[in-house]
Amino acid sequence: MNIHGTTILAVRHKGLLVVAGDGQVTMNDHVIKHSARKVRRIYNDKIIVGFAGVTADAMNLSERLETKLNRYNGNLERSAVELAKDWRTDKYLRRLEAIMIAADESRMFLISGNGDVIEPDEGIIGIGSGGIAARAAAAALITYSDLDTKAIVEGAMKIAGSICIYTNDALTIEELKIEK
């Protein structure tokens, strides 16, 4: 069975971090859920995570990230690196099929099972089936419009949903004000 789905987009712009995820879950050629929640807050609501992939695997990774955050006093970069190291080297974790974004008021990372911990140069990350389309749309909207950050993310996700058959418009959106 092939389970597809999810577009997650994170944008840091104009003093705000906005992370959005669509709600569609697809199994083979059928949509089986329209309103899955793939974006949530962890670590006392200070970190926003979004995930693409197998839900149980993503939840496992989210819990492991929160454990690392507790161990390293909320240091997102250190926690992300330690999670990626475990994910890449542990025989059980290597089988997990997910990818995630984790962001706080100052940092944003893409974390993968390949050992990747990537912080974007321009404050935009898109993952999942429609991630590339959402990221490109967000970059264009930032460059060529005066929209606020939430409107940029909503518009970019709408564009991704119009292109990617595994992305819908039932969005979950979380926001954090960026402290300067």
From TrEMBL:
GO molecular function: metal ion binding; threonine-type endopeptidase activity
Chemical reaction(s) catalysed: ATP-dependent cleavage of peptide bonds with broad specificity
GO BP terms in the entry: proteolysis involved in protein catabolic process
The EC number(s) this enzyme carries: 3.4.25.2
Keywords associated with the record: Allosteric enzyme, Cytoplasm, Hydrolase, Metal-binding, Protease, Sodium, Threonine protease
PANTHER family: ATP-DEPENDENT PROTEASE SUBUNIT HSLV (PTHR32194:SF0), METALLOPROTEASE TLDD (PTHR32194)
Complexes and interactors: A double ring-shaped homohexamer of HslV is capped on each side by a ring-shaped HslU homohexamer. The assembly of the HslU/HslV complex is dependent on binding of ATP.
The protein's name: ATP-dependent protease subunit HslV
Protein species of origin: Desulfonema magnum
